[in-house]
Amino acid sequence: MDYVSNTEKERKQMLKEIGVEAIEDIFNSIPEEVKLNRDLNVSEGMSELELKRHINKIADTNISLDNYTSFLGGGAYDHYVPSIIDHLISRQEFYTAYTPYQAELSQGTLQVVYEYQSMISELTGMEVANASLLDGGSATAEAILMASRISRNKKVLMSSALHPSYREVAKTYGEPKDLDFVEIGLDNSVTNLEELEDNLSDDVAAIVVQYPNFYGSIENMKKIQKLKQQYKKVLLIVVANPISLGLLTPPKEFGADIVTGEGQSLGNTINYGGPYLGYLACINDRKFIRQMPGRIAGATVDADGNRGYVLTLQTREQHIRREKATSNMCTNEALNATISTIYMATMGKKGLKEVAEQSYKKAHYLAEKIDETDKFDVLNLDNFFHEFWVSTKLPVKKVLSSLKQNNILGGIDISRFKEEEGILISVTEKRTKEELDELVKLMEVM
Amino acid sequence: MDYVSNTEKERKQMLKEIGVEAIEDIFNSIPEEVKLNRDLNVSEGMSELELKRHINKIADTNISLDNYTSFLGGGAYDHYVPSIIDHLISRQEFYTAYTPYQAELSQGTLQVVYEYQSMISELTGMEVANASLLDGGSATAEAILMASRISRNKKVLMSSALHPSYREVAKTYGEPKDLDFVEIGLDNSVTNLEELEDNLSDDVAAIVVQYPNFYGSIENMKKIQKLKQQYKKVLLIVVANPISLGLLTPPKEFGADIVTGEGQSLGNTINYGGPYLGYLACINDRKFIRQMPGRIAGATVDADGNRGYVLTLQTREQHIRREKATSNMCTNEALNATISTIYMATMGKKGLKEVAEQSYKKAHYLAEKIDETDKFDVLNLDNFFHEFWVSTKLPVKKVLSSLKQNNILGGIDISRFKEEEGILISVTEKRTKEELDELVKLMEVM
Amino acid sequence: MAEKLIIDYSSQGRKGYSLPSLDVPDINIEDNLESEYLRENLNFPEVSEVDVVRHYTALSELNYGVDSGIYPLGSCTMKYNPKRNEDIARIDHLSQIHPYQSDEDVQGSLRILHELKTDLAEISGMDEMTLQPASGAHGEFTGLLIIRKYFEDKGIEKSKVIVPDSAHGTNPASAVMAGFDIVEIDSNEHGMVDIEKLKEAVDDDVAALMLTNPNTLGIFEKDIKQIADIIHDVGGLLYYDGANLNAVMGYARPGDMDFDVLHLNLHKTFSTPHGGGGPGSGTVGVKEFLKPYLPRPLLVKNGDKYYWDYDRPKSIGKVHAFYGNYGVLIRAYSYIKTLGYKGLKKTTENAVLNANYMKIKLKEDFELPYEENSLHEFVLSGVKQKEKGANTLNIAKRLLDYGQYAPTIYFPLVVKEAMMIEPTETENVGTLNKFIDTLKTISKEIEETPELVKNAPHNTAVRKLDEAKAAREPDLKW
Amino acid sequence: MAEKLIIDYSSQGRKGYSLPSLDVPDINIEDNLESEYLRENLNFPEVSEVDVVRHYTALSELNYGVDSGIYPLGSCTMKYNPKRNEDIARIDHLSQIHPYQSDEDVQGSLRILHELKTDLAEISGMDEMTLQPASGAHGEFTGLLIIRKYFEDKGIEKSKVIVPDSAHGTNPASAVMAGFDIVEIDSNEHGMVDIEKLKEAVDDDVAALMLTNPNTLGIFEKDIKQIADIIHDVGGLLYYDGANLNAVMGYARPGDMDFDVLHLNLHKTFSTPHGGGGPGSGTVGVKEFLKPYLPRPLLVKNGDKYYWDYDRPKSIGKVHAFYGNYGVLIRAYSYIKTLGYKGLKKTTENAVLNANYMKIKLKEDFELPYEENSLHEFVLSGVKQKEKGANTLNIAKRLLDYGQYAPTIYFPLVVKEAMMIEPTETENVGTLNKFIDTLKTISKEIEETPELVKNAPHNTAVRKLDEAKAAREPDLKW
Ligand SMILES: Cc1ncc(COP(=O)(O)O)c(C=O)c1O
Ligand SMILES: Cc1ncc(COP(=O)(O)O)c(C=O)c1O
């Protein structure tokens, strides 16, 4: 089937009015030498029934979180998503709209963005947030570029406890700008602060740490703040899982200049890694705001003096500034930001805290039990949020595949990132005690 | 969880303004003797996560059409339902609205009803349709009561080829009105017209036939029309599957006075038998319209002369006429009527015909093949629409359960209605040749 | 704002559907079917999928739903319809099952239905339930047929059903459909059944009294036990119209008030969506002695297994071709399981609290014909306002201008210029105050600029519609 | 119509969520975590589920979507977003998969992704694709990094990227992010690349020319082969901005026009919804010789198995933490499978037909700065109207009063008072005529009552908004 609305008769009539004979004639401006003189080698079209049959058959070959218990995290978390979210974002007015170019017919989107910015600011403790970036990895990269523009420095001290893929994306983005990335090694499961201290200097653009970090551990933010404060120009970028901020002190209080990260955990479906959303917030400093990437919504008044919302501070952006823009951001992750806004509103003051606390408590329950087994140790048992690092002498691949036979996705094989070894286990509020105990039972007898 | 919005604090404040101390006090008007002085013996509440887990677990014990190939029909058909329908009726403005009491804020519902009435009229060939009744069974019963009121007769000649359950419902409804039901027997798979003729007289309220009938056969409507025409007061009620009318001549052309039936096949999910919708349409005769049960929408103008829609001819209805109403109909099946309206609009002129034709052709393909097998005969091979009557010497229960082991729901065991024997097999456009061939292959080796 | 008819989007040859092409050998239907049975023309719209989506989206925008704001229709219990119940009703393994699958195929669904009816019986204090009736009125009809059948079975002839003047129109209409004659009795000055008049009306011919409690004024019939005795003394039965169950859940049970038969409106108390007028579910509950008369089939649990029992010789028969509005029942189940017994009670408490709060506030401006304590709803009269030039209908229409739905009006019939207000528990004090303020504003407008109110609505998609013309010159299809 | 902020619905203690209660033994977090790491306060809304549902429903009503009507934003390809693709993207077995599941767990999804990239490569004439970029601009950036890496790998130093003045703002912005300097070249009087100027601008330092074809005026750069030669002759590469692919599917392929790298906007040509600004997908295609530089990991098929190949030493690295906007990719796959090759071609034909039809009709009233044949979009100028007192911005706002969205305005920069109109193929002649008539009406209004147009919009939820104030006094959160 297709989605063409004109009938054959209408097409003929329209061609007549245009003044050409056949439909091919309106393509006459394409020179023959580049015309495709054959059919595309793409399959025949399908009706809806065939399409659904076809795709369902393929989908059924996947193993999914629908019938496997997942302890996978690493930046993509299986939290509870309230049912109302999908109902609300499925309203066509939200999901089929374009970027709010005509503000007067886009107040819905614009107010949502304003609410999103407000709650992201509150959550991180920062003062200004943008309307979203593409994902946690690219947002981290954009934050680093922003810091480099502000500080006019090129050296970036990046914790090895920052998500390996975020580091890789940051390097991809930084390379053309000649950024000099120094990776600060681990001290057990956290950033080696001595090494950090040794590398600090006035030509550092930014320190980048993750909070809680990739291994789930909570960095010594007090200490990092102190180190940073010794150098005026050095910015502190904190990459934070927003769910953890339901429980943890906001990065601002540890001197963060820019807080960024992945917003997926705020109500977004796991979706094999995307679409997610990068969030980014900074301090209220004109120098910072002028360097911010991405769209920003602001409140204003209309011709009658009534409150309304617009996209603002656009002189940072590509459609106005072209090559002088702070970033090339155009399409962002607006619908995911809408999801996260509704999530934050629904969970609210108490709910977000409860999600964080339950995740914390369940993860700690599980970690204790795993640590008590013979063959497994939790490396960061004394310091983690809802994700922890398990080491074992058993071959990790075997451990995970034996768990999979029991319908459990037991965690991330850390060796996939070619740096460290072990299993990264993540626990959200969705996991039941029964599921945790089952995992322990299986690990006990390995 | 619950859906109470007031907080404890607000409740206290409200109680204060009402002038009572505790919440229990506002129930003081309930005498102690009838007060419940214990907790209800209902389980504890659940959070959404628990609820979904709980219900999914139960649901998984069902065998469903989702992974079984179904040849079940008998008044509930597995036709293709275009995806857009659920998207549209899931707009809260449709599904959470009440009966359109305030027409000015309910033009959406009212116009949908008007469109529904228009298309039901067109499909059946009739001139006036109501806004829906509760289901095919009760609609048939209401049609009979209506016919009896119009003709002032009590005798109803009801074909035995009318759906057994519709007959039962009709009798339930007719009993308090002292209707005298005469069931006209079968002549092979159709109504015995001689018997019908013998029972016809001027004191007959109505002839009730199904078209196509319960066994899938197409009644000799020409003949029935002729018989009926000999008696001026006798009305002809035709119970029709609306999908079949994409292919078949509308009942009106065979002299039907009232056409009624089950609208499920027009886009409604199979849903274990409900919610479905009864439709009912009649000729354009004031006497008929005055006796119609159920709501009717009509077009009118507003104070500025613009077109708009209202519920009309309400002097037939219970909220105006109370004990003198034509029926007690209040809540009907509005959302199902909305579904059917969108279905009819989507399929349109060509689509409905194609659905009917494909169902017809696939059913005939299958029937021929089954008839060629050793152990099975098709009793109405020469005359059926998309459902046919298979007889066999094998025990039907065994046949069906062996098919079920092959993930096929092979049809209805006709003996469940305690009248006839055999298997009623229904084929819609959704069944593929592969599925039909698979069924035949299994039946061949039985 | 007006939206044309779907047929007016039609363009010859346009298509909005897609089907797989025929995969069996094609045949010529004319070879099988006489030409006079082959339809010649079907004048249906020819529109694209985009046309359909836009048209019905546009129509939806002309509607007001519970998610649009307060919906204070008295007697209708327009509470929030939880989205999660919609998800659950769409689970494939629940919705994609056929009514003629064998009981063993669908044990999961039968378990749900059985738990539901058990819960409903407990909540209402009855002994057995049928889930077959598809609406409140259908439930009334079913319940009255049960009463009829019971007397028939016992060989007792009774022809009358007593209905208070405050009763809903479906009550007398259903009783007549069930073959009874109606005796209407007036309410007393407290808005309750007049015991003396009741006694006068009662005789051996009375089969039943139909009552809702609290009644449609929201007032609890405190003499219910006495009323029950009066009816039972002449061998009659008590029928409970469950439309107002939201007022008493966890506080009182119709069964304990000696009602013998009742129906519950799951599309009211149990939050299933109204769908613009339906579907609903009017499950019927009875006391033990009436169980034999329930519609066929009855859902039975035997050990761990559930099945439909058709072997019920005294049954009134079927009132629905299948088992009732299953999809609605699933939603109600989901609702009850979510709330649990505490949530149900809290629901009732807040429904009653909200109504009482509104009553206190609004009686400052509107006449309150019955000062009696009321529960989940209350009825005001617009007589004062009418004298000043705008009646209840005008007030209702003016409310629409403020983007809020109107109460039920001109019902119950015992109150002049009635406005019957039922906020439900899912509103909070904020939305109540907004509605109260609007009504007070309108009352002020009536004093200052009555024409404004009389000519309302002004801001809706259409202005006031000419109902007389609609009835006089019926235009019922395109 | 105004809707307050969600925080303004807040009431202390109100709850909109439900979680199972903690089922593991409770612990005191303070025992584990120093108090300075424990958050003290989170000033989030405290609202009920009903509040949330109503608030965001109300906000949605202040928006305009594709299902509301024509959305003729030039360069944005706002076509109908098929509902069935939404269903498919929500299939549990497709959406409930974690990015760190092993490849063997998710063969179904990998197959879909592989088929998608194979189809996209065929449609665009490229040899290999990455699905990682999450937007058009992200794709540009990725593509330019590939070019950069290629030259680095070959040991060639090149610093410049040529961009026509009609290019989209993301083109120069992306090139700068990728470390290049921009050389802008003017278009000629036909709205096309000025070959002479191009020749002048080209030297050995040119790494790439970025072009969309048809260009943002909707005009096909007929000299594309010559342009390609000019660039290739100095060792530069040709980058294709695929935003306008809807104009040529099945008729011409960027690969055959000698483009070396391109991105495709799946949220334009391939009908995935824009979501109010995102998510999108800007998949990047390259010719064989650039394959080594594609982002890691690359999706590879080996026999019947699919896997992610990380072992790509020359890769530019990752541009996304995972694999890109998978959910968007699923929708695009569903779209392509639905249409098939015939449907894709028909899509393009009707997109071009619709645009040409509108152009013919509208050039009667509006200046058409370039008379050249155009394809799927065209650009008018509002200069005539501006002289009469209402500029293009006013016209755009006035369109909103008529319930229709406005075209892209003031872009491309080469046209004064530009109105860039792209109807797409999912509109039919009926909706086109309605839009044409409205624009003509507005043009008449400008002659008769210019103030009406200048002060537009009048009927929208808010009137014209003060953007200057917003920028001057930023109010970016509550
Ligand atoms: C008091 C009362 N009884 C009965 C009914 C009838 O219920 P239904 O509309 O479901 O048939 C209603 C509904 O309006 C009602 O309010
Ligand atoms: C011509 C052109 N190029 C590039 C882009 C950028 O695409 P995106 O918004 O997906 O980043 C756009 C989108 O507006 C465009 O129209």
Describe this structure in words.
The complex is a heterotetramer, with 2 copies of chain A (446 residues) and 2 copies of chain C (478 residues). Chain A has helices spanning 8-18, 48-59, 83-89, 92-95, 107-124, 136-151, 164-174, 193-199, 221-229, 286-290, 318-321, 334-372, 396-405, 433-444; strands at 69-70, 128-129, 155-159, 180-184, 186-187, 190-191, 204-211, 235-240, 258-262, 278-282, 297-301, 307-311, 376-378, 387-392, 408-409, 412-413, 423-426. The longest helix of chain A is centred in the C-terminal third of the chain and has 39 residues, at 334-372. Chain A has 446 residues and is an alpha/beta fold. In chain A, strands 2-10-9-8-7-3-4 form a 7-stranded mixed β-sheet, with helices on both faces. Chain A has a 4-stranded antiparallel β-sheet with strand order 13-14-17-16, with helices on one face. Chain A is built from 14 helices and 17 strands. Chain C has helices spanning 29-32, 49-60, 83-89, 92-95, 107-124, 136-154, 170-177, 195-201, 224-233, 326-362, 383-387, 392-401, 429-448, 450-454, 467-472; strands at residues 128-130, 160-164, 181-185, 206-211, 237-242, 261-265, 282-286, 298-302, 305-309, 378-381, 408-409, 418-421. The mean pLDDT of chain C is 97. Chain C contains 15 helices and 12 strands. Chain C has 478 residues and is α/β, with parallel strands linked by helices. In chain C, strand 2, helix 7 and strand 3 (181-185) form a beta-alpha-beta unit. Classes of the chains: A alpha/beta (446), C alpha/beta (478). Chains in contact: A-B, A-C, A-D, B-C, B-D, C-D. At the A-D interface, helix 1, helix 2, helix 3, helix 4 and helix 5 of A face helix 2, helix 3, helix 4, helix 5 and helix 6 of D. The structure holds pyridoxal-5'-phosphate (2 copies). One pyridoxal-5'-phosphate (PLP) binds next to helix 6 of chain C. One pyridoxal-5'-phosphate (PLP) is lined by residues 75-76, 135-137, 168, 170, 212, 216, 241, 243, 265, 280, 282 of chain D.
